[in-house]
Amino acid sequence: MEEKDKITPKEDIWKEQFYRTCQEIIHQIMSNDNSIYFFRPVDPELDGAPNYYDIVIQPMSIYRVQEKLDNHEYKLPNEFINDVRQIWINAKQYNHPTHPIYKAADMLASKFEVLASSLPQYISEESKNSALQRYVELRLLRYKVNKTLLEKK
Predict the structure, then answer these.
(1) What angle is formed at CA 51 by the lines to CA 83 and CA 102, rounded to 5 degrees?
(2) To the nearest whole number, what is the mean pLDDT of the chain?
(3) What is the pTM of this model?
């Protein structure tokens, strides 16, 4: 295993907290009766939606999200967030705004956004370094601007 691929104890703790929080979010979503529409992948024949996969290009379901959680496929919170958001996007893309599934997706999307704010944030070493570099570059730029302004006086 390369040095950059090694997982630190801090990352282990973060991942454990991240997956626990994701599971809790899914549990909260599933506790709503309307979640039944979104649990399993759409079956065009069974669900009376023969053109579903012609319209929906990125199918997603709570079942698939749960499967990815169980297999630890998510590395970052945004991957999980984007998959869950895709469920609501698909439902609203396929169904008319007056349809009960559209309304359920709208309501659960709002609930999800509140729940997703509880996800632990992870900042990689690369991000820390680039943020630090940007900070240093900004400070240097401010210094040069101030120095130029003082020289003009």
Answers:
(1) 50
(2) 86
(3) 0.74
pLDDT for position 139: 74
Alpha-carbon distances of 9 from 16, 49, 71, rounded to whole Å:
11, 47, 20
Taking only the tens place, the pLDDT of each residue in 19-66 is 999 999 999 999 999 999 999 999 999 999 999 999 999 999 999 999
Among the listed ranges 41-45, 69-73, 115-119, which one has the minimum average pLDDT value? 115-119
The closest alpha carbon to 105, from 60, 45, 48, belongs to: 60
DSSP state of 139: H
Q: Is the dihedral of CA 62, 64, 69, 75 positive or negative?
A: negative
Q: What values do phi and psi take at 106, rounded to 5?
A: -60, -45
pLDDT on residue 14: 82
Q: What's the Cα-to-Cα distance from 84 to each of 49, 65, 90, 120, 122, rounded to whole Å?
A: 21, 7, 10, 16, 19
Amino acid identity at 87: I
3-state SS class at 55: helix
**Cα distances (angstroms) measured from residue 98 to each of 42, 102, 109:** 19, 7, 16
Contact 22, 119 (CB under 8 A): yes
